[in-house]
């Protein structure tokens, strides 16, 4: 039996936790989630920084929430969605001018292929997969991020997994897989 | 195996590149956000104060006139507001503050009432167009600076033709035909260049409406009252004798007289 690897989850021990510590702990996973969601590292870092800045600015209110992580992720995904159109225009302009953004470290072919497969998912399915399996949020937290019912999150994850299987990214299930509904 | 595999795949897709900003950057950005939010609060507070002062001035003006005099429906002198900026002007929204003065006289009231009758439908308006009403007269100081603009009146039209839509249409009055033509050319150019897709649509027009709304030459020695249809290129001119008074009341009265005459 394979033990599922545990994603990096921030424990909700926020008594006396500072905004700085919260942001520092969340930054890596948030940027990664947004990279998977947006497909561009520059955009992901910019959106993550904006979301963390908003969290920091409202820390007195955010810290007492049931899940500050979910609130931050929700803010980040909202910003990413609202900026999508502007980014599209920007990308077209960059393309038109023949400019290319250079990555700091070249991505591996596998990483690019996986990101492409995730990017091919519809936005809500993509967000659900990222929230559940990369950010490590619970179904309830993911439902807050996506602003929908927990049942909808399960449904979105189920459909996303089916799409990823069809794309050949993950294996076909051998038996009943309850991870999606866990 | 599927879920751990997916998590590993996602980890691999993200890679282990370091994040290129620090908590210090986040804190700096958060401070900027705070400053912006406070500025917005101050601005909205100032706006609320300005609106309150405007309301107090209006009410006190009404009180000063005494209960024996009825407040005219349209007449309110020197009311400063942005809301009365003509909606049909084809230029993009101006960032200049607009000061408008709503003016009314008893004779203008009668003319406005006359305009709201069906008589307008008997004019050269196509049969499927109906005048629903005429709004108050506005003089917008900063609406078209330096263009010879004198003022506007709003006319609501309804069309029976499917696909033909009219909202609020303004009669914009200019001192001379040349002024109006120059302004219209600029506005049309701006409209073509900056019209936001999706929020502005050019209605399909029947040939009869096109004929009605087509530019018409103004006779010499007349001030020109331009009927500018919202969203489109249509202009109808009515003319005001140059002997008519050039103050705002006079222009309004002359213009409405002309419109009533146009209505038969």
- Please count the beta strands of chain A (DSSP E, at least 2 residues each): 0
Point out poorly predicted stretches of chain A.
1-13, 100-104, 176-182
The value of Rg of chain A in angstroms is: 17 Å
What is the subunit organization of this protein?
Answer: heterodimer
Q: How many helical elements of chain B?
A: 6
Terminus-to-terminus distance of chain B: 85 Å
Biggest sheet architecture of chain A: none
Task: Briefly say what this structure is.
Chain A has 182 residues and is an all-alpha fold. Helices cover 65% and strands 0% of the residues of chain A.
Structural overview:
- The complex is a heterodimer of chains A (182) and B (264).
- Chain A has helices spanning 19-38, 41-57, 59-62, 68-96, 109-119, 123-134, 139-146, 150-166.
- Chain A is mostly helical.
- The longest helix of chain A has 29 residues, at 68-96.
- Chain B is built from 6 helices and 6 strands, in the order H-H-E-H-E-E-E-H-H-E-E-H.
- A 6-stranded antiparallel β-sheet of chain B has the order 1-2-3-4-5-6.
- In chain B, helix 3 (106-115) runs parallel beside helix 6.
- Chain B is extended.
